[in-house]
Amino acid sequence: MDWPSLVTLCDFLATFAFALVGARIAAGRNMDFGGIALVAAVSSLAGGTFRNLFLLTSPSWVLNPWLLLPVVVAVIFTISFKSVAPVGRFILSLDSFGLAVSTVSSAEFALKLHAKPVIAILMGLIGGVTGGLLRDLLAQIPPVLLHRETIGTSCFVGALALVVANEFHPHKLVPVFVGGFFVLLIRELSIHFKWNLPKVSPK
Q: Is 200 a member of any domain?
């Protein structure tokens, strides 16, 4: 499989993973079919949309309408199988994969547009966390980003690792895999060990 095909496959899987998690959460909140579709779409497409708008380019799903297909598949799957059970470990792993792909693709995309390294890191963070944050707000649940699982930290470290590796390695595959590895590592460890950033303890 060549590099463009690999990127296309990863984008498809990441979009599906985010959409499936969003659809499952919406179904669990007793939303109707329209609500499920909206939350699934926002979960999977918002991060890339905001990233592209900040970088003054058209959203990816406008340029590549096929990215809407995994959203439709995730919604149909959720509705058909009446998937309203809490998100399980397998779905969380899919979500972690989506987080890694969206983070590194956003940071890499910014670098391709000759953005400064700090901007590429911020775009990686925005691309990774925005969909999940808006998903939770629409579902009216406490955003995972703000209180557990170190999602933001995972995206930040992964994007930083990609940018640093990009400075030292000319082959674009290596920085992408390095960045993705760090996102997955920190997210999975935080889920397993129930890590979170320090909180303000009441007196």
A: no
- Give strand ranges (E) for 41-174: none
Helix (H, G, I), strand (E, B) or coil at 113: coil
Neighbours of 142 (CB within 10 A): 10
CA distance 96 to 34: 26
Enter the tokens of residue 69.
């297909």
Is 199 a member of any domain?
no
Domain count, the chain: 1
Distance in angstroms (rounded) separating the CA atoms of residues 140 and 157: 28
Residue 181 lies in a domain: yes
Residue 49 carries which DSSP code?
A: H
Read off the pTM.
0.88
Which is nearest to 95 in space by CA: 74, 67, 66, 64?
74
Distance CA 66, CA 3 (A): 18
Q: How confident is the model at residue 115 (pLDDT cuts 50, 70, 90)?
A: very high
Q: Determine contact, residues 132/153, Cβ cutoff 8 Å.
A: no
Phi-psi region of 114 (alpha: psi -120 to 50; beta: other; left: phi over 0): left
Domain of residue 26: give its range: 3-193
SS3 3: helix
Question: Does residue 53 fall inside a structural domain?
Answer: yes
Q: Is residue 12 predicted with pLDDT exceeding 50?
A: yes
Note whether 102 and 96 are within 8 A (CB). no
* Banded model confidence at residue 1, pLDDT cuts 50, 70, 90: very low
